[in-house]
Amino acid sequence: MLQGFKEFISRGNAMEMAVGIVIGAAFGKVVEALVEGIINPLIGGLFGDVNFASAWAVKLGPATISFGLVINAIIYFLLVALAIYFLIVVPMNKMAAMRKAKNEEPEAPADDVRLLEEIRDLLAKQQPPM
């Protein structure tokens, strides 16, 4: 039972997933700092409220609906998605395409094509050069 778990953990996919989770968590902090430190103040400067998280808050009795927090989360999500796409997905797709092109062997011609090529070559040998 432990041997099966060891094989599962030592497989590439499980290890890559674990590394991806750790890197993703660290990258999330970088994006969060970018959103909170640069993007929100810029947007807040445009709309006159530096604290963008509390911007566009609507009070409904004791409850507060904060549209700024939702917009903050959307910005955060889009930045993470763009970064993951351009830094991970695009390079991996290019590497996979290069690996596929490298590993592809030219297909052997079909039997009928091979026979026609042999006939062509024999006919070319029989005709005198001009």
UniProtKB/TrEMBL annotation:
Q: Which InterPro entries match?
A: MS_channel, MSC/AndL, MscL_channel
**Which is one Gene Ontology cellular component term of this protein?**
plasma membrane
List the GO molecular function terms.
mechanosensitive monoatomic ion channel activity
Give the membrane topology, semicolon-separated if more than one.
Multi-pass membrane protein
The cellular location(s) given in this protein's UniProt record come to: Cell membrane; Membrane
What UniProt keywords apply to this chain's record, in alphabetical order? Cell membrane, Ion channel, Ion transport, Membrane, Transmembrane, Transmembrane helix, Transport
Please list every transmembrane segment annotated in the UniProt record, as residue ranges. Answer: 21-43, 63-90
Positions the record marks as coiled coil are none
Q: What does this protein do?
A: Channel that opens in response to stretch forces in the membrane lipid bilayer. May participate in the regulation of osmotic pressure changes within the cell.
Q: Read off the NCBIfam families from this record.
A: mscL
Q: How does it assemble?
A: Homopentamer.
Q: Please give the family membership noted in the entry.
A: Belongs to the MscL family.
Name listed for the protein in its UniProt record: Large-conductance mechanosensitive channel
Q: Which organism is it from?
A: Bowdeniella nasicola
